[in-house]
Amino acid sequence: MILVPVTYKGGIYQHDEIIDLIEDLGGYIIQKHIIATEVVLQALVPKEDIELIQRIGKPLTGELTPSPLVGTEIAVVSMSLEIHHLPHASCDLAEYIRRFGAKTNMVGLARGFGKRIAQLNDEERDVINEHDLAVYLLGNFETCIEQKFGVLRRGIDIPIVVCGGPSRESLQEIIDPPVDGYVGNVGRFMHRTKESEELDKLEEVVGEITRVLDRRREDLAKDPLSISPARLMDTINEKVDAIHEVLSPTPITVQMAGLRVKLPYDQYARILKDLVIEEDVTIGDIVDIHPSRMRDYILLKVRPFSETNIMV
Amino acid sequence: MASIEYFEVECPEKTGGRYYQRIADVVLLDHNLIRVIRKIHFFIDPRVPIFVAVGITRKMPGPVRLRDFSDVSVQDDKVTISIGDETYLAKLLESLWDIFGKERVEQPDRFTVVITAGTDETKDLEDLVVDDPSLSIYKDLIYALQVIQPEGFKVRRQYYGDGRFYLVASEDTLPEDIDDLVREKFALLEESP
User: Fold this and answer.
1) Is A116's CB within 8 Å of B30's CB?
2) Are A252 and A233 in contact (CB under 8 A)?
3) Nearest chain B Cα to A165, which residue?
4) pTM score, two decimals?
5) Please, which residues bridge with residue A29 across strands?
6) Ranges under pLDDT 70 in chain A
7) ipTM value
8) CATH 3.30.70 assigned to B64-131
9) Radius of gyration over alpha carbons of chain A, in Å?
10) What span, in angstroms and rounded, lies between the C-alpha atoms of A121 and A137?
């Protein structure tokens, strides 16, 4: 069964039916938002059942759109959280990526600004590394990007997409060793992105992210995970009651190869480790459990089949 | 609204310079400074790195007096002020409280202020200076230039006086010949029509 990431938008009336349907078909609800009288569901659904969901959703004014980034957690790395970079361009971009289903976290560097003085500390490095992909929002000058980017990428081992003022070709030329994605002409700006060519640029960023993540998905498919992160989320939701007490919008954030569980590590790491998924397979058998550098959350990294020899 | 007569961004990196032109334009517009500045020249060299902004302001608008935005009518020992423009209301109330005390200043509705005071005290009331925009323009101008400049430039020097202003910033110690550079950029402004 191939699961496809989609977004369902529809009226609040009888939306439970759609949730039940997706779950009965073997899909997973990753995130649910209720905005006034509208429900937005981000879900992974079986490819062959898309039409069925569309048909049942139609009388409920439901609309199903493909969202390539559902089930990914992306770090939008801003050089600082000062007015120079916020709310435009950092928030504009983070919000736009969110529309395609990704969970974006903004990482504002403490000392990301400047050419000579820019630096990345260990906490920032570790927080960025917990994501599936990092989007670096750099400035407008080639000279600065060339000098500072080496420092800002030090120790980052996840795919990087660089956005900057110079053209894509210039970025490719000055960044050495190369990164996974480049988007030119998106540097520092102080106005809201609302004109069509600016929106096209944001679209280009999303396109680049999707391309990089698709490649990562292909790599993952070569050595499949022992359990799909969405299924793991479902198990935790079902068996750990405390997760329903968490007030965060996504108590469990789904990543491409793991989960971020927003429960305190000290109290719940052991409970999660011993949780039975199926018959005699526990989470501890197929998942590495680490404390997250983000608050006291728990980070689960699913091990591949080649390591565990278990597939659930 | 009057526009800026001379507005240039000089930068060895063409693309970067173009972006900064837009940034400067948006920031000055957002901070309502377009009508204050007559000429402005930015010089940014990311290789040094250095940021220089020099400019000439227009003649500043004079102080805002009570009669500019309201009607004052005196009846016996009661003065009624009808407000036309609410912008200055907060500052007006503060000034009136200072002069007459809170117990003698009433505001029966949003656009009316009633003062109980003798005619001696209120005879020059219409000429009361409520706000002087030229005092805050300097702060606004420097703040806007700090927003425009690249963020990491924490070493700064700024000046304002006689209708001229400049701000130089860098992330390193400012070069010794910085005054010459500023003079050179001011000369460009003066040459332009």
Assistant:
1) no
2) yes
3) B16
4) 0.86
5) A43
6) none
7) 0.86
8) yes
9) 20
10) 17
